[in-house]
Design goal:
With 277 residues, the chain is α/β, with parallel strands linked by helices. The chain contains 12 helices and 10 strands. Strand 3, helix 3 and strand 4 form a beta-alpha-beta unit. Helix 7 packs across helix 10.
Length: 277
């Protein structure tokens, strides 16, 4: 007996990871997706569905996936090396494309605010370069090591995305480095950031409010507490040991289901982390 892991392969007995994010469904985001999804659920019947966040889990269930068989298994990132204050300014890193919201964010960045450093490459690079001024720096594309160093050296990471972000690794890496993140509320990203603090999320498309909040948090008297909370969130949810333990429980439960040693109603208890984990 073999259990294969894949993205939306759909063979009976598989563990399915994030089926809603495959190219097949992304291309049809506005037409026919619900019909295709239900057809997939009914015809393929995977044992378990993996969602990156609770928000995504609810979306899968709303589209017809069986609730008991959808579980959350987040991504994980390497442990950081959080450094003590002082840190410098606000950092944004990613692809320079419209859905990331970086251009309208730059337009409302306060002239008297801390330095905002922008890193990345993409179709909007010309607009980003044109928007630079005394307190807005553009540093281009960074290596993975340089990105981690930038996240570690910033006081705050801003993520003004205007489209659903499943679970950006930049946010998780910022947590690992003890750097608070600010973002818009809603979707998976907003839900994850709100676990750090409700102060770190603003209403969607409130770019001016997000810019002000990012600037304020740079000098917040409780910044060190927010930094510690970020590291704690990474440790509890997004560290490699937690990820490996979660994946182990998922495979063990899938095998037991396949062998008939576990009933569907027993799944939640089988997938729940133990105190030791």
């Amino acid at each position: 007996m073999t259990l294969r892991v894949g993205r939306c392969r759909g063979l009976r007995g598989e563990v399915i990871e994030n089926p809603g994010l495959t190219d097949r469904f992304r291309r049809n985001a506005h037409t026919g997706t619900r019909r295709q999804w239900k057809q997939f659920v009914v015809e393929r019947t995977p044992l378990l569905w993996l969602a990156l966040t609770e928000v995504m889990r609810r979306q899968f269930v709303a589209q017809g996936a069986p609730s008991q068989q959808v579980t959350v298994k987040a991504n994980s990132v390497e442990q950081g090396r959080p450094q003590a204050c002082p840190r410098r300014g606000v950092f944004w890193g990613g692809r320079l494309s419209p859905e990331k919201g970086i251009v309208p964010f730059l337009r409302v960045w306060p002239a008297d605010g801390p330095v905002l450093t922008v890193a990345g490459s993409g179709p909007l690079e010309g607009e980003i370069r044109a928007a630079t001024r005394d307190n807005i720096r553009f540093v281009g594309r960074l290596t993975r090591q340089e990105m981690r160093a930038a996240l570690r050296g910033a006081a705050v990471v801003a993520m003004p995305s205007v489209s659903p972000e499943p679970l950006p690794l930049v946010a998780l890496e910022a947590f690992a480095e003890g750097t608070p993140v600010v973002s818009f509320a809603g979707w998976s990203l907003g839900a994850v950031v709100s676990e750090l603090s409700e102060r770190c999320v603003l209403p969607q498309h409130d770019f001016a409010g997000l810019a002000r909040r990012a600037a304020e948090l740079c000098a917040a008297p409780d910044w060190e507490q927010l930094s510690d909370a970020a590291v704690g969130l990474w440790s509890r949810r997004y560290s490699h040991p937690v990820n490996v333990a979660s994946l182990g429980r998922i495979y063990a439960a899938a095998l037991e289901l396949k062998r008939g040693e576990l009933a569907m109603h027993e799944l939640p208890a089988a997938l729940a982390p133990t105190e030791a984990a």
